[in-house]
Design goal:
Elements (H helix, E strand, L loop, with lengths): L1 H22 L5 H12 L8 H10 L4 H25 L1 H11 L6 H21 L4 H10 L4 H36 L1 H22 L2
Helix pairs in contact: 1-3, 1-9, 2-3, 2-4, 3-4, 3-8, 4-5, 4-7, 4-8, 5-7, 6-7, 6-8
Length: 205
């Protein structure tokens, strides 16, 4: 029974991986990377890292360009999330927060912002913590938008350029390892997604 449960998400991720590898061969794959990175900062659940890695492996010489695209789109998506929280929370923001079942953390986030706004945003920007909740709540609680932008630039750029540097140095070896240990890496990927929500709840208590 456990094998069937684990096999399903792994199979799904395998299809996603194959799709991204194929996508990486397309002429305008960087546009998809931009859109995913943008959306992940405000509402989309899947981070852009898998596509960034796939593109980096397929076009090794462009990896830093892809990291820049990811960083720029993610920061702009964070600003969009801020706008949602600032002016459209009840219509758009609240349904997003409810979808991720994080509504009970909003007051705690408000307290964190009053004391550690920059650090809170920076931590979420760099880690697997669901960044969309942070950007939307920053707008809702009227955090200085320049605090959001600066923390986002530092956190998101650090995250994606570290991946780029790693791929630049170990690209070919990583491609071989992904194919060889795909099932294990899939479980780690899902664990990071789930762990981001758990880490958020731990940090806010």
């Amino acid at each position: 029974m456990l094998k069937k449960i684990l096999k399903s998400p792994i199979s799904l991720l395998r299809r996603l991986y194959n799709w991204t590898i194929n996508l990486a061969q397309k002429p305008h794959a960087d546009i998809f990377l931009f859109l995913i990175a943008f959306a992940e900062s405000s509402f989309f659940p899947i981070p852009p890292d898998p596509l960034l890695i796939a593109l980096g492996l397929a076009h090794h010489q462009k990896i830093f360009r892809f990291a820049f695209i990811c960083s720029l789109a993610s920061v702009l998506g964070g600003i969009f999330g801020y706008i949602i929280g600032f002016g459209f929370y009840e219509i758009i923001g609240e349904p997003i927060v409810n979808f991720y079942n994080l509504q009970n953390l909003m007051e705690t986030i408000k307290i964190k912002y009053e004391n550690y706004a920059f650090i809170t945003i920076l931590t979420a920007a760099f880690t697997p913590i669901p960044y969309k909740l942070i950007t939307i709540s920053a707008g809702l609680f009227k955090i200085n938008i320049f605090t959001l932008i600066i923390a986002s630039i530092i956190g998101r750029s650090s995250r994606f350029f570290i991946v780029a540097i790693f791929l630049h140095v170990f690209g070919k070896k990583i491609a071989e390892k992904i194919e060889k240990y795909f099932d294990l890496l899939s479980l780690i990927f899902f664990a990071l997604l789930i762990g981001g929500f758990i880490l958020l709840k731990i940090l806010l208590h």
